[in-house]
Amino acid sequence: MPANTLDLVTELTLRRATPADLEGVLALLTRTAGWLNGLGVRQWPAGGFPAERIEPLIGAGVMYLLDDGSPAPAATIAVDGHADAEFWTPADRPGDALYVHKLAVSRTCSGQGLGEVLLDWAALRAAAHDRPYLRLDCAKDNARLQAYYRKAGFRHVRTVDLPHRASGALFERDASAAIPAAPSHQHTPVVPAQRSGHAVQAWRVLDITAHN
Protein backbone atom coordinates (compact mmCIF):
# COMPACT_ATOMS: atom_id res chain seq x y z
CA MET A 1 0.00 0.00 0.00
CA PRO A 2 1.47 3.41 -0.92
CA ALA A 3 2.61 5.55 1.96
CA ASN A 4 0.09 8.26 1.08
CA THR A 5 -2.85 5.83 1.18
CA LEU A 6 -5.04 5.93 4.28
CA ASP A 7 -6.38 2.77 5.87
CA LEU A 8 -9.70 3.79 7.42
CA VAL A 9 -11.78 1.30 9.37
CA THR A 10 -15.31 2.04 10.48
CA GLU A 11 -16.73 -0.37 13.03
CA LEU A 12 -20.40 -1.20 12.63
CA THR A 13 -22.43 -2.75 15.42
CA LEU A 14 -25.59 -4.71 14.81
CA ARG A 15 -28.22 -3.78 17.38
CA ARG A 16 -31.93 -3.57 17.85
CA ALA A 17 -33.47 -0.27 16.83
CA THR A 18 -34.97 1.80 19.64
CA PRO A 19 -37.66 4.50 19.47
CA ALA A 20 -34.86 7.07 19.34
CA ASP A 21 -33.74 5.54 16.03
CA LEU A 22 -37.10 6.03 14.31
CA GLU A 23 -36.17 9.25 12.52
CA GLY A 24 -32.92 7.84 11.17
CA VAL A 25 -34.55 4.59 10.05
CA LEU A 26 -37.36 6.45 8.28
CA ALA A 27 -34.83 8.70 6.55
CA LEU A 28 -32.82 5.72 5.27
CA LEU A 29 -35.95 3.93 4.05
CA THR A 30 -37.17 7.11 2.34
CA ARG A 31 -33.87 7.64 0.55
CA THR A 32 -33.79 3.98 -0.50
CA ALA A 33 -37.39 4.12 -1.74
CA GLY A 34 -36.63 7.24 -3.76
CA TRP A 35 -33.57 5.61 -5.29
CA LEU A 36 -35.55 2.47 -6.21
CA ASN A 37 -38.36 4.46 -7.75
CA GLY A 38 -35.82 6.52 -9.67
CA LEU A 39 -34.71 3.25 -11.26
CA GLY A 40 -38.32 2.42 -12.12
CA VAL A 41 -38.66 -0.19 -9.34
CA ARG A 42 -41.97 0.06 -7.46
CA GLN A 43 -40.89 -2.09 -4.53
CA TRP A 44 -41.68 0.60 -1.94
CA PRO A 45 -43.76 3.79 -1.95
CA ALA A 46 -41.80 6.62 -3.59
CA GLY A 47 -42.10 8.78 -0.47
CA GLY A 48 -41.00 6.03 1.89
CA PHE A 49 -43.00 4.64 4.78
CA PRO A 50 -45.08 6.48 7.35
CA ALA A 51 -43.94 6.23 10.95
CA GLU A 52 -46.92 4.04 11.83
CA ARG A 53 -45.57 1.31 9.56
CA ILE A 54 -42.14 1.26 11.20
CA GLU A 55 -42.91 2.02 14.86
CA PRO A 56 -44.55 -1.40 15.44
CA LEU A 57 -41.43 -3.16 14.11
CA ILE A 58 -39.22 -1.19 16.49
CA GLY A 59 -41.66 -1.72 19.34
CA ALA A 60 -41.71 -5.47 18.73
CA GLY A 61 -37.92 -5.61 18.79
CA VAL A 62 -37.62 -7.05 15.27
CA MET A 63 -36.03 -4.04 13.53
CA TYR A 64 -32.23 -4.05 13.55
CA LEU A 65 -29.65 -1.64 12.25
CA LEU A 66 -25.97 -1.45 11.57
CA ASP A 67 -24.74 1.48 13.62
CA ASP A 68 -21.52 3.37 12.96
CA GLY A 69 -22.21 6.05 15.56
CA SER A 70 -23.75 8.54 13.13
CA PRO A 71 -27.41 9.67 13.26
CA ALA A 72 -28.31 7.68 10.14
CA PRO A 73 -27.83 3.89 10.22
CA ALA A 74 -25.61 2.25 7.65
CA ALA A 75 -28.27 -0.41 7.03
CA THR A 76 -31.54 -1.74 8.39
CA ILE A 77 -33.35 -5.06 8.41
CA ALA A 78 -36.46 -6.42 10.09
CA VAL A 79 -36.67 -10.15 10.78
CA ASP A 80 -39.77 -11.75 12.23
CA GLY A 81 -42.22 -14.61 11.88
CA HIS A 82 -44.80 -12.64 9.89
CA ALA A 83 -45.66 -14.40 6.63
CA ASP A 84 -47.64 -12.19 4.25
CA ALA A 85 -50.89 -14.13 3.79
CA GLU A 86 -51.28 -12.82 0.23
CA PHE A 87 -48.02 -14.52 -0.73
CA TRP A 88 -47.35 -17.47 1.57
CA THR A 89 -50.06 -20.12 1.76
CA PRO A 90 -50.72 -22.82 4.38
CA ALA A 91 -49.07 -25.28 1.99
CA ASP A 92 -45.82 -23.32 2.41
CA ARG A 93 -45.86 -24.05 6.15
CA PRO A 94 -45.36 -20.37 7.09
CA GLY A 95 -44.19 -21.28 10.58
CA ASP A 96 -41.13 -23.00 9.13
CA ALA A 97 -39.44 -19.69 8.34
CA LEU A 98 -38.42 -16.27 9.51
CA TYR A 99 -39.11 -13.42 7.10
CA VAL A 100 -37.00 -10.46 6.01
CA HIS A 101 -38.58 -7.02 5.67
CA LYS A 102 -37.29 -3.47 5.13
CA LEU A 103 -33.74 -4.42 4.16
CA ALA A 104 -31.99 -1.21 3.15
CA VAL A 105 -28.36 -0.13 2.86
CA SER A 106 -27.24 3.49 2.79
CA ARG A 107 -26.08 4.51 -0.67
CA THR A 108 -22.78 5.66 0.87
CA CYS A 109 -22.17 2.05 1.95
CA SER A 110 -23.64 0.27 -1.07
CA GLY A 111 -21.70 -2.37 -2.93
CA GLN A 112 -19.64 -3.35 0.12
CA GLY A 113 -21.50 -6.50 1.16
CA LEU A 114 -23.51 -5.15 4.10
CA GLY A 115 -26.75 -6.54 2.71
CA GLU A 116 -25.21 -9.98 2.37
CA VAL A 117 -23.90 -9.77 5.94
CA LEU A 118 -27.38 -8.99 7.25
CA LEU A 119 -28.97 -11.78 5.22
CA ASP A 120 -26.41 -14.28 6.54
CA TRP A 121 -27.12 -13.11 10.08
CA ALA A 122 -30.89 -13.41 9.50
CA ALA A 123 -30.41 -16.98 8.31
CA LEU A 124 -28.38 -17.75 11.44
CA ARG A 125 -31.20 -16.28 13.49
CA ALA A 126 -33.76 -18.50 11.74
CA ALA A 127 -31.62 -21.58 12.40
CA ALA A 128 -31.21 -20.57 16.06
CA HIS A 129 -35.01 -20.45 16.35
CA ASP A 130 -35.39 -23.87 14.73
CA ARG A 131 -36.83 -22.43 11.53
CA PRO A 132 -35.45 -24.29 8.51
CA TYR A 133 -35.93 -21.38 6.10
CA LEU A 134 -35.36 -17.67 5.70
CA ARG A 135 -37.84 -16.07 3.29
CA LEU A 136 -38.58 -12.76 1.64
CA ASP A 137 -40.57 -11.23 -1.18
CA CYS A 138 -39.41 -8.59 -3.64
CA ALA A 139 -40.52 -6.69 -6.73
CA LYS A 140 -41.89 -8.89 -9.50
CA ASP A 141 -40.17 -6.91 -12.26
CA ASN A 142 -36.78 -6.28 -10.65
CA ALA A 143 -34.55 -8.86 -12.31
CA ARG A 144 -31.42 -7.24 -10.85
CA LEU A 145 -32.66 -7.56 -7.27
CA GLN A 146 -33.82 -11.11 -7.85
CA ALA A 147 -30.37 -12.00 -9.17
CA TYR A 148 -28.88 -10.43 -6.03
CA TYR A 149 -30.94 -12.70 -3.81
CA ARG A 150 -30.05 -15.76 -5.86
CA LYS A 151 -26.38 -14.88 -5.45
CA ALA A 152 -26.99 -14.59 -1.69
CA GLY A 153 -28.15 -18.21 -1.58
CA PHE A 154 -31.90 -17.80 -2.12
CA ARG A 155 -33.96 -19.83 -4.56
CA HIS A 156 -37.04 -18.60 -6.35
CA VAL A 157 -40.16 -20.29 -5.00
CA ARG A 158 -42.74 -18.67 -7.30
CA THR A 159 -44.08 -15.30 -8.33
CA VAL A 160 -47.52 -14.26 -7.12
CA ASP A 161 -48.92 -11.67 -9.53
CA LEU A 162 -51.45 -9.51 -7.72
CA PRO A 163 -52.52 -6.32 -9.53
CA HIS A 164 -52.42 -4.23 -6.34
CA ARG A 165 -48.97 -5.42 -5.22
CA ALA A 166 -45.65 -4.47 -6.83
CA SER A 167 -43.96 -7.20 -4.82
CA GLY A 168 -44.66 -10.88 -5.30
CA ALA A 169 -41.43 -12.67 -6.27
CA LEU A 170 -40.97 -15.13 -3.40
CA PHE A 171 -37.57 -16.42 -2.35
CA GLU A 172 -36.22 -18.67 0.39
CA ARG A 173 -32.90 -20.09 1.50
CA ASP A 174 -31.95 -22.89 3.86
CA ALA A 175 -31.18 -21.44 7.27
CA SER A 176 -28.84 -24.28 8.17
CA ALA A 177 -26.55 -23.42 5.25
CA ALA A 178 -25.58 -20.23 7.09
CA ILE A 179 -24.26 -21.99 10.19
CA PRO A 180 -20.44 -21.69 10.25
CA ALA A 181 -18.28 -24.63 11.26
CA ALA A 182 -16.88 -22.69 14.22
CA PRO A 183 -19.28 -19.87 15.07
CA SER A 184 -17.74 -16.77 16.58
CA HIS A 185 -19.62 -14.32 18.77
CA GLN A 186 -16.83 -11.80 18.87
CA HIS A 187 -15.39 -9.55 16.18
CA THR A 188 -16.35 -10.52 12.65
CA PRO A 189 -14.53 -8.54 9.95
CA VAL A 190 -16.59 -9.44 6.89
CA VAL A 191 -16.86 -6.48 4.56
CA PRO A 192 -14.24 -5.75 1.88
CA ALA A 193 -12.54 -2.41 1.51
CA GLN A 194 -13.85 0.37 -0.69
CA ARG A 195 -11.20 2.25 -2.64
CA SER A 196 -11.70 5.92 -3.43
CA GLY A 197 -8.74 8.01 -4.50
CA HIS A 198 -6.03 7.58 -1.91
CA ALA A 199 -8.32 6.30 0.84
CA VAL A 200 -9.32 2.77 1.63
CA GLN A 201 -12.58 2.56 3.58
CA ALA A 202 -13.38 -0.73 5.28
CA TRP A 203 -16.22 -1.73 7.56
CA ARG A 204 -15.69 -4.14 10.42
CA VAL A 205 -18.97 -5.58 11.67
CA LEU A 206 -18.95 -6.35 15.38
CA ASP A 207 -21.02 -8.90 17.31
CA ILE A 208 -22.98 -9.92 14.23
CA THR A 209 -24.22 -13.15 15.85
CA ALA A 210 -24.94 -11.69 19.28
CA HIS A 211 -28.67 -11.32 18.69
CA ASN A 212 -29.57 -14.94 17.92
TrEMBL record:
The keyword Transferase applies. Transmembrane segments: none annotated. Keywords: Transferase. PROSITE patterns: GNAT (PS51186). One of its GO terms (molecular function) is acyltransferase activity, transferring groups other than amino-acyl groups. It comes from the Bacteria. Residues 12-176 form the N-acetyltransferase domain. This is GNAT family N-acetyltransferase. It comes from Microbispora hainanensis. The lineage of its organism: Bacteria, Bacillati, Actinomycetota, Actinomycetes, Streptosporangiales.
